[in-house]
Amino acid sequence: MPLPLEGWCAETWTAALTKRPGAVSRYVSQARKKVLSDDYTFLVVWEKIGKSVPGDPQKKVNHHDLHLDKLYDWGESKPAL
């Protein structure tokens, strides 16, 4: 679990919120933007694909065997693979 930044001089998030509410708010907002970015979500899906492939990671895999439809709920429309 991430801890408050060292420069905030707080051991817990509760203490950080008491001492530096604005800094904590900016930190959480920036972290949220990063997590919701296309780059991050791409890496998460890539990791799931890697873990779903049995055997040697060097092995060539048919993309139909990866069951990409199960990694993400595409709703009504699915993108063309």
Task: Give me a quick take on this structure.
By secondary structure, the protein is mainly alpha-helical. The chain is built from 3 helices and no strands.
Helix content: 40-55%
Q: Number of helical runs? A: 3
* Apparent shape: elongated
How would you characterize the largest beta sheet? none
Radius of gyration from the CA trace?
A: 19 Å
Strand residue content:
under 5%
Mean pLDDT: 77
What is the structural class?
A: mainly alpha
- What is the total number of structural domains? 2
Write the H/E string, N to C. Answer: HHH
The strand count comes to 0
Note poorly predicted spans.
Answer: none
Beginning-to-end CA distance, first to last residue: 36 Å
Throw out a few tags for this protein:
2 domains; 81 residues; mainly alpha; 3 helices; single chain
Describe the structure.
With 81 residues, the chain is mainly alpha-helical. It has two domains: 30 residues, no CATH class; 33 residues, no CATH class. Helix content is 46%, strand content 0%. It is built from three helices and no strands. Helix 1 crosses helix 2. The protein starts with 12 loop residues before the first helix and ends in a 29-residue tail after the last helix. The mean pLDDT is 77.
